Amino acid sequence: MISLKTLFAATIITISMTDMPLCGQTTLKTTIDPVTLILDGRKADGGWRLIPGPKTDVLDTTAKNITFATDTNTLNITLDEWQSKDFIILTAKGDTARVRVNRTAANPYENPDPALLKKAPSGILSRKQAEFDINALVYSLSQIHPDIFSTCRQTDFFRAVNTAIASLPDSVSVMELYHRTAPIVAMIGDGHTNLKFPYSKVFT
Asked: End-to-end alpha-carbon separation of the chain, Å?
């Protein structure tokens, strides 16, 4: 759940609909630029510079508690991983800067973006999904295997990983992804580590 509070003259009040003139979005007012940005209690160097106009400026962060503070008021945002919040900042000149805060995972391989886990009815993966799967495979191997470079040189291993990723088309089947990743796992060179053939995806 997203928790929002606005400070006016150091007094906390509930955001009202009159503070959200544009399509119901939360509004922060300022006469300064940049505004102060605080991430999990730490002040960000340089603050947050405003980019007025129709385009939304995006802040990607792993911070749970995000604060935007101006000389007029303060906006506190609390997000769970992979949640987001849109709001607007109004300048003294009447310009509007649109802002979106995205909280990503501290470890995206242990808590992946839900959008990457969505399956198409056809079973075909997007290039972005396939690339994530390859990187997640490498991460899992590095966490589980005692020494994945005992037989294979590290430079050769990651060259093969980068080649597999670079060769990915815009969409790829599970079988095609298997053909690209199985040789990488085989490079580890022990009989206990292999990539299981996707029987359930092929013989259905």
From this structure: 41
Helices 174-186/127-144 angle, 10° precision: 30
Report whether 51 contacts 83 (CB < 8 A).
Answer: no
Under 8 Å CB-to-CB from 183, ≥6 apart: which residues? 160
pLDDT tens for each residue of the chain, 204 residues long = 333 333 333 223 223 223 334 456 899 999 999 999 999 999 999 999 999 999 999 999 999 999 999 999 999 999 999 999 999 999 999 999 999 999 999 999 999 999 999 989 998 999 999 999 999 999 999 999 999 999 999 999 999 999 999 999 999 999 999 999 999 999 999 888 888 888 666 555
Q: What pTM did the predictor assign? A: 0.74
Which secondary structure element, helix H or strand E, spans residue 142, and what is its range?
Answer: helix 127-144
